[in-house]
Amino acid sequence: MAPAAAEMAQAVGPVGSHTIAKGAGGAAFFDVVFGFPQYQTLITARNSTANGGNAIGDPKQQQQQAEGGGEELVAVGYAAPCVWGGASLEDLPPTWDHVLATARTMLHDPANAPKPTAMSALAVEVSPQHQGGGLSQAVLRHMKAVAKGLRAKGLIAPIRPILKPQYPLVAMEDYITWHVPDPRDPAGPPVVFDPWLRTHIRLGARILKVAKCSALVAAPVADWEAWTRMRFLSSGPYTVPGGLNVVQVDLSTDTAVYAEDNVWVAHVLD
Fold it and tell me: In the chain, N or C: fewer CB atoms in 10 Å?
């Protein structure tokens, strides 16, 4: 969650003259978000002080309303319908991309789409000046309430661990096993190292498994150089700003591919 890798191209800089080959999720993200407003959570603040209220609806419309009323959008939670039985790993969606591609089919071709049975969080974003105030937890709690209200069998999320970009060479399977003393209770049992994973766990989530190659961005080398402000002068793996995994560069085909691993978690719906 947090901004997904398939949106990295938009996050790190302008697109070059070539075509970006995103995974199915990156191509469908905003179509799905605006197509399923009932799954979204938005929190606004007046005079730069979060009021804790939630506004659910078309994110674009809600932002316009907030701006027109002297309020600002300080936190958003994006989610979508998905297919999951609520218990087994066997029918868990394989990737973030898969969730979005399936949701888009549900939106535009419901007759040929599977019936949604669960809800998947896609991203949680909090404006920089409001971070650290518990807004991400508020968004997650509201997502759980939305899932329960929709009678979903579960709320799942393909997590983007927030500190993983500092350790891009470490396998995600190893990273999620790291534990440290609890900052809230150093004398208590150790907790998961990553703060974003820890936030989900404190709210009742459990780690299910690693989602391999969950989100994809592929583009010509020149575009990746522009986005990252780096030079790729030989083929091979490169660490890039914000990347959970390395970017694989192949100069012979003029292609750079970023395939990101995520972590599936499932929240208990109270």
Answer: C
**149-208 pLDDT, tens per residue?**
999 999 999 999 999 999 999 999 999 999 999 999 999 999 999 999 999 999 999 999
Per-residue pLDDT of 4-22, as tens digits, reads 333 333 332 222 223 334 4
CB atoms within 10 A of CB 58: 17
Q: For residue 243, which of 156, 174, 136, 170 has the smallest C-alpha distance?
A: 170
Q: Is there a contact between 137 and 104 (Cβ–Cβ < 8 Å)?
A: no
- Chain length of the chain: 270
For residue 48, the enclosing domain spans 5-9+23-212+261-267
> Would residue 239 count as lying in a domain?
no
Instruction: Give yes or no for a contact between 69 and 137, defined as CB atoms under 8 angstroms apart.
Output: no
pTM of the model: 0.82
Instruction: Note whether 206 and 198 are within 8 A (CB).
Output: no
- Has residue 235 been placed in a domain? no
Whether 134 and 75 have beta carbons less than 8 Å apart is answered as no
Evaluate whether 240 touches 258 at the Cβ level (below 8 Å). Answer: yes
